[in-house]
Amino acid sequence: MIFFWAFVIGGLICVIGQIMFDVFKLSPAHTLSILVISGAVLDGIGWYEPLIDFAGAGVTVPITSFGNSLVHGAIQEAETHGLIGVVTGMFEVTSAGISAAIIFGVIGAIFFKPKG
Q1: What does the pLDDT look like over 24-57, one tens digit per residue?
Q2: SS3 assignment, position 25
Q3: Where would you find the membrane-spanning parts of this chain (predicted)?
Q4: Is the distance from CB of 66 to CB of 94 less than 8 angstroms?
Q5: What is the dihedral of CA 88, 69, 35, 37, to 10 degrees?
Q6: Quick one: what percent of the chain has pLDDT higher than 70?
Q7: What is the pLDDT of residue 100?
Q8: Cα 31 → chain centroid
């Protein structure tokens, strides 16, 4: 059943993003920012963790999870290191994903040639 809910909730997040493109005519940058901020707000009010428990990868794969990671890391480190932990926590939690994206992007650029 977890696969069903992951598909439904993840698909709903994608539908919301597509509606932002098609109906509200928002740019990709605006849509991305709104989805990241919504993930951050949901984690800030404590609703994202129960959503992860319910839908699993359906909410950890979309871009809303990046906002969740930023806030979650900031809150976690702020509890132990104070104000400086807010900044370092965001970088500590998200650095692996950002590093992987950069590394795989460079590898892809080395091995593949763009069509043009």
Answers
A1: 999 999 999 999 999 999 999 999 999 999 999 9
A2: coil
A3: 6-24, 93-112
A4: yes
A5: -40
A6: 99
A7: 87
A8: 12
Query: What is the structure's pLDDT at 46?
Result: 93
8 Å CB contact between 78 and 89 = yes
CA distance 102 to 61: 17
The C-alpha atoms of residue 33 and residue 78 are separated, in whole angstroms, by 24
Round to whole Å and give the CA distance between 99 and 107.
Answer: 12
Q: How is residue 15 written in tokens?
A: 């539908």
Residue 109, SS3 per DSSP: helix
DSSP 61: S
Match 């707000």 to its residue by tokens. 41
∠57-10-1 over CA atoms, to 5°? 65
Q: Decide which of 94 and 67 is more confident.
A: 67
